[in-house]
Write a structure and sequence with these properties.
about 325 residues, 8-stranded mixed β-sheet, 5-stranded mixed β-sheet, 5 helices
Length: about 325
């Protein structure tokens, strides 16, 4: 997939300059946060510290400690399949699990199992557009596939979604699976109304790659990407999360492993990547929530989503 096939010219809010981020925040009613950003930027410029615009020092100028939408790093956890067990389930980092090599060349089902909004720009109910990208191993070559889904989520809560089919019958390549995902906070009234069609029964079944004719996949995928790009650049719409995840069957360090189960993508500060420990968190099957191991009243205080990988079975 070349660079023009993703959102490289539409950074998430955490990668915008102070001026651009402040403008976006004002569009969605975050005037106090915008003013703090503008004041910080003015102060740094007046002292000649303009290097904060650079990527390496970009995070220094964020004056917030309580805005989950400002972060650009992610940590990825894994939950093994559960067989009727009500005990708290451990979560492991995706590097520390064993791959399932028998998934190589097989069809799988990719589902959205959770979407939690700890904090997005604006307040109240958020209309969130999720855009997914995978590579489908078609006959002789890999095909890029795109799909959109949308949910309404209250600030500080999770969307009413569990096991939502995104790609059904996805062919896994010999090397594994490549997945990209982006979330866009849609506050433009016209766009919110337009996106209601994604809540129809047609889209709630996801993209079925066995039942959909191959010639239809490419134009449908291109349309989904074009729609998401158009929505993303409109006034009052803000991209928040963006991650690129490769899962394979190797034992190479710094590589995620592909296995049946659930994958958790948490948006965290870059500085937390070295100290985040998945052993401190567990999943409670009886409640359907992820909590702190030592305090089961404490939830993950960051934005995250969970997607599931399971074998596809024809009926």
């Amino acid at each position: 997939m070349n660079s023009s096939s993703w959102f490289d010219n539409q950074p998430v809010i955490g990668k915008l300059s102070p001026e651009q981020a402040a403008a976006k925040l004002r569009e969605v009613g975050e005037d106090e946060a915008a003013s703090r950003l503008e004041s910080m930027g003015t102060g740094l410029e007046s002292t000649g510290q303009q290097q904060f615009r650079g990527e390496s020092s970009r995070r220094v100028w964020w004056p917030f400690q309580d805005k989950p939408w400002q972060y650009t790093a992610h940590t990825f956890g894994y939950l093994a399949p559960n067989v009727s067990n009500s005990d708290p389930m451990p979560i492991r980092h995706i590097e520390s699990i064993a791959a399932h090599p028998d998934l190589r060349g097989k069809r799988i089902k990719l589902t959205l199992n959770r979407l939690r909004i700890a904090g997005y720009p604006g307040s109240g109910i958020h209309r969130v557009l999720l855009h997914f990208y995978v590579q489908h191993q078609g006959t002789g070559k890999a095909e890029p596939l795109h799909f959109n889904a949308t949910y309404r989520v209250h600030e500080g809560e999770s969307a009413g979604v569990q096991g939502y089919p995104v790609f059904t019958g996805l062919n896994v390549g010999y090397e594994g699976l490549s997945l990209k995902c982006r979330t866009i906070n849609v506050r433009n009234d016209a766009d919110e109304a337009f996106l209601s069609f994604l809540e129809s029964d047609t889209f709630k079944t996801g993209l079925h790659l066995v039942k959909t004719a191959q010639p239809v996949l490419a134009p449908f995928s291109e349309m989904a990407l074009a729609l998401a790009k158009n929505i993303g650049k409109r006034n009052r719409n803000v991209a928040v999360q963006d991650f690129d995840l490769g899962l394979d069957f190797s034992t190479t360090p710094l590589q995620g492993k592909l296995a049946e189960g659930a994958y958790i993508a948490v948006q965290i500060p870059e500085s937390f990547k070295s100290i985040w420990d998945w052993d401190e968190w567990v999943y409670l099957p009886t409640k359907g929530i992820i909590v702190k191991h030592d305090d089961q009243q404490e939830l993950i205080p960051y934005n995250y989503l969970v997607f599931g990988v399971s074998r596809y079975e024809e009926h």
